[in-house]
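subagent[fold] <- orchestrator: predict structure for attached chain, return tokens only, no commentary.
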Amino acid sequence: MDYKLLRALDVVMGYQSFERAAKVLCISQSAVSQRIRLLEEYVGHPVIIRGKPLSLTSMGKQLINHFKQVEILEQELLPKIRPELRQAPIKLSLAVNADSLAIWFFDALAPLIKFSAIELNILISGETRTVERLKSGEAFGAVSTNPNPTPGFKTEKLGRLKYVLVATPEFKQHYFPKGVNVDSVRNAPGASFDRFDLMHQQFIEKHFGLPVDSYPCHSVRSSEAFVNMAKKSLAYTLIPEIQIQQELASGELVKIAPRKNQVDTLYWHSWVLEKGIFKQASKMIVEYARKTLL
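subagent[fold] -> orchestrator:
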């Protein structure tokens, strides 16, 4: 297989543009298109779905996944066979849910990343969707609630993250004067990460029997913003208890349904053939999470 063709596919998808890929590869745009066409002829299947945004076909995902794994092996091997060459930063692409990123993930990797020639690429997705980043070849490792390994990858249990439903005393008094019940939830604004994040919706349906769109719910793609929205009395939110220990202790935030909690078990997915820096990163992530999470 001609890896020049796979490289073209990787750059096109990374920049979401044939034109920008041409500039990165220092070739013409038509040459980029030709490389993609040659790749498709070689494998006998389309590899790109030409829409907005560009997306990979099933075959395209397999090819990118393979290409990324070869890149990892090359990054580990090259310094050993050509130590005189200036070493380019090793690229770590990791898929992580926003809550883990805000609470513990950087602390786990800090000793490895600090003062090292490592370039992080953090891909933020909901904890149920991070594994898709592995399947697409975008990431070599992922934090997920899915315990089942993807072919070519392994899973290790990290620990549990307990979510509690919180608000300010002011918000609680205004929207929940008689407690959190079906009627009050219909009128009180909540918050979810994005339209793919089902945690809030599933929690409300499980405990109050209300379907989606029968109550107000903000959408904000930031774990830290969840805390700020709650602290400013803009919403009641499901937040990891470990993230707001200080606010709960001071009374700035209060649990509004202390008997109704959400507990997620997290797993680390990583390549079965990982070596060197990649293996070390996985080891540090697993060990730190097991000390930090429940």
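orchestrator: received. Logging for downstream: The two ends are 46 Å apart (CA to CA). The CA atoms of residues 18 and 123 lie 22 Å apart.
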